[in-house]
Design a protein that fits this description.
Elements lengths: L3 E6 L6 H13 L2 E6 L11 H11 L6 E5 L4 H7 L4 E6 L2 H17 L4 E6 L9 H9 L10 H16 L2
Parallel strand pairs: 1-2, 1-4, 2-3, 4-5
Bound molecules: 4'-phosphopantetheine (PNS).
Length: 165
């Protein structure tokens, strides 16, 4: 039987932290479908299509990974692609409450899909897309946190934002 995992997130945009989790999930499961979803609590910089395109570029070297954008419930997406599990990265204790709440809600909505957590590697513990965007906005060097193509797109967004003010 082929094991299928859905790795969900808003990925606004993808960082080395996300790539680490996707790569490690791809070693554990036969197929990893990265689902680019809407987080209603966040105001994204990038459209779902832009986030999906960046993810496709930076995971092009991982053969068993597929990137899909979806607007709707994560459990509906997971059921539609016949996923066995939802995989999420857990960075620190601060992530736990929110992730726990989502995992329990998802299992209430569809109890046939399990959520499993991978612990983020130590060097990525502090990384988040919001922090990276903030560092970029304030003129800091974001190259340690994101691949070059992602850095270029963040810098472009920053330019566009400053022009529209
Ligand atoms: O990377 P994020 O922002 O922590 O990911 C959160 C995400 C996008 C996985 C979550 O907001 C989500 O699942 N959104 C899809 C809509 C949904 O299913 N909401 C109920 C989840 S409890």
């Amino acid at each position: 039987m082929v094991s299928i995992a859905v790795c969900p997130g808003s990925f606004d945009p993808v960082t080395y932290g996300h790539i680490d989790i996707i790569k490690r999930a791809a070693k554990v499961f036969d197929k990893v479908i990265v689902a680019v979803l809407v987080n209603m609590e966040k105001k994204p910089w990038f459209t779902i299509e832009e986030r999906t395109d960046l993810l496709k570029k930076v995971t092009a070297d991982i053969p068993n990974v597929e990137i899909v954008g979806f607007q709707g419930l994560l459990v509906d997406f997971a059921a539609a692609v016949n996923a066995d599990v939802i995989v999420k990265g857990l960075r620190a204790v601060s992530d736990f409450e929110y992730e726990f709440q989502m995992a329990l809600t998802n299992s209430k909505l569809n109890n046939s899909i399990e959520t499993v957590f991978l612990t983020t590697s130590a060097e990525n513990m502090y990384l988040s897309s919001s922090i990276v965007k903030q560092v970029g906005l304030l003129g800091g060097d974001i190259s340690p946190f994101v691949p070059e193509c992602v850095r270029d797109e963040i810098l472009l967004k920053i330019k566009q934002r400053s022009r529209s003010k």
